[in-house]
Amino acid sequence: MARGRRPSSAMLELRHLRYFLATAEELNYGRAAERLRIAQPGLSQQIKNLEEIVGTPLFDRTRRSVKLTLAGELFAEEARKALLQTETALLVTRRAGRGEIGRIAIGYVGSAAYTGALTTVVGEFRQAYPEVELDISEMEMSQQLDQLDQGKLDIGFIRPPVPLPIGIVSTPILFENIMLALPESHPLATQERVPLSALHGEIFITPRHPAGVSFHEHTTSACRAAGFFPRLGPQGRDFVTIASMVAVGLGVALVPQSLRSIQVPGLRYRAMEDEPVLAELAVAYRRNEPSPVARSFAAHARKVDPQLKS
To answer: Is-contact 154 106, C-beta < 8 A?
Structure first.
């Protein structure tokens, strides 16, 4: 600092507050210096500089004692608040950097809720990171992937196979068997296990997916393996809608076995006699995720062992 230049309030530093509070609490320069592990002359100079910055004496000094002035008492109260707020800010920032606090927007296909995997994965994450705010919304898979790509969504629970946008990856968290959904009035509805080939000529209801995606792909590939190409009929927004469509006789459908938790009058779920067909539930996220808290969720999902739900 140039000679004769008066310090300004812009030069106030945290160390000034720490030195001042130690001296205010000890009311003795020697003990305060020892507590701060600095030399007493250096502490005296720092207090003097602080008083020049604030523009008024903070201590009433005599040969035998050191007391706070009224300004010093008021300054001490505010200095404690400032240091506490600073420490809080540092703690919050560090925790945010470690992905321990923040907000995550999560999307999920409706069938993820039936499996129990959604509540398990999200619930375990919430236990590990209780201060993370979770915004969870059911939405179609294509919308999830679009919002992930646009940065509007952080995590998606999806049903592969599905083409992923560049930079979006997924990790499986569950595999489950696929079952048949038949109208109660169907001639094969009384059988415990139904060969898929016996449904040759039936109308198959699928979700609103393009060819090669999710249960559209599961349906066509399973039927081809059974020796025929399915007659694809109406499509449903979700599996609850599809179950209702099957129940009223609009067709049959291949559905995840977890859908059995949804009981619809007039509907029967039956196992397939053929080789098991598995449906995957996966968590999608950005490969180069900038958000620490979203990275924490993705890391949590990667640790899940995708057990077969039979």
So the answer is: yes
Alpha-helix residue ranges (DSSP H) falling in the chain: 14-26, 29-36, 40-54, 70-97, 110-115, 117-128, 141-150, 214-225, 239-247, 292-302
3-state secondary structure of 183: strand
Q: Identify the residue whose tokens are 């995840």.
A: 256
Beta strand pairing call for 102-108 and 253-256: unpaired
Whole-angstrom Cα distance, residue 272 to residue 171?
27
Q: Measure the CA dihedral 209/213/215/218, to 10°.
A: 150
- pTM summary value: 0.72
pLDDT tens sequence across 253-309: 999 999 999 999 999 999 999 888 999 999 999 999 888 889 999 999 999 988 766
Q: Is 308 helix (H, G, I), strand (E, B) or coil?
A: strand
For strand 132-138 and strand 102-108, is the pairing parallel, antiparallel, or unpaired?
parallel
